[in-house]
Every structure is written in C-alpha cells, then in structure tokens.
Design a protein that fits this description.
The longest helix has 27 residues. The protein has a domain of 91 residues. Strands 1, 2, 3, 4 and 5 form a five-stranded mixed β-sheet that branches. It has 136 residues and is an alpha+beta fold. It is built from three helices and five strands, in the order H-E-E-E-H-E-H-E. A hairpin with a 5-residue loop joins strand 1 and strand 2.
C-alpha cells in the first residue's frame, strides 16, 4: 500500500509538471502578425491599398492591439505624399495574427469601395512599399 501511494504521488506530480510545461510552450511561441493598409481621400476617387504583409518581429500587446500602429499608418501616408505625390489621404491599417481573417477583412473593405462605381481601387506595388518596424 505504501508503494502505491508513492507511485500515485509521483504520477500526480509528473502530470502537474507536464501540464504547465505544455502551456508554457504555447505561450512562448510567437505568432506572425499580418497587416494591410488602405488610403482614401474625400478629394479624390482613387483608393490605394497594400497587399497583406507580414510584419517583422512584432508581437501584439495584451489587449490584442498592434504596438505603435499609428507609426505604420504614417509610413503609408508618407509614401503616398512623398513618393506618389498624393497629399490629403487618410490612411488605415488592419492587422491580425490570423491571415485568413485578415483576407476576409480585406475583401470586405474592398467590397465596400467597389459598390461605388466612381471609386477606383489602386493597388500599391509590394516592391515599392513595405511596412517596416518602427525604431524604438
């Protein structure tokens, strides 16, 4: 009986320790963060959008938000103003750790703009513009 108790105690400790190690392994693994940008203007009928891109070495905060997301929108705004000479655009960034969800969101956003026949959707060449991690 004494050996059964010891064996049971050892098995219980092993199960508890292994459960915590599995949980820790899942949290330690970083997921990729994907993003795309959209830029629209009230003064123009052209809406610019980027492809879905992987953001380098980015981790969402505890609330599920992209840290320094405003700096990513400024990157897109600066590209439009200085490289494409298109001032006065309002830029938005959409992000997610789930690429399929983001693809659906991209299709939904583009669909809203496509409903208006006077708006022209203009893709931004991925070779010309990529989101970069903001400097610390």
């Amino acid at each position: 009986m004494k050996y059964v108790r010891i064996l049971f105690a050892v098995a219980l400790v092993f199960m508890v320790c292994s459960a915590f190690s599995f949980k820790k392994g899942k949290e330690g693994k970083e997921k990729a963060v994907y993003a795309f940008g959209v830029a629209a203007s009230f003064n123009d009928t052209v809406v610019y959008f980027t492809d879905i891109q992987v953001l380098d070495s980015i981790k969402l905060d505890k609330g599920g938000f992209l840290p320094k997301r405003d700096l990513y929108t400024y990157q897109l705004k600066n590209y439009l103003e200085f490289d494409l000479k298109c001032p006065d655009y309002t830029c938005m960034i959409y992000f997610s750790e789930n690429k399929k969800k983001l693809e659906k969101e991209s299709a939904k956003v583009k669909g809203k703009y496509k409903k208006n026949k006077s708006i022209v959707l203009m893709p931004i060449d991925p070779d010309a513009f990529r989101f970069k991690k903001p400097e610390e």
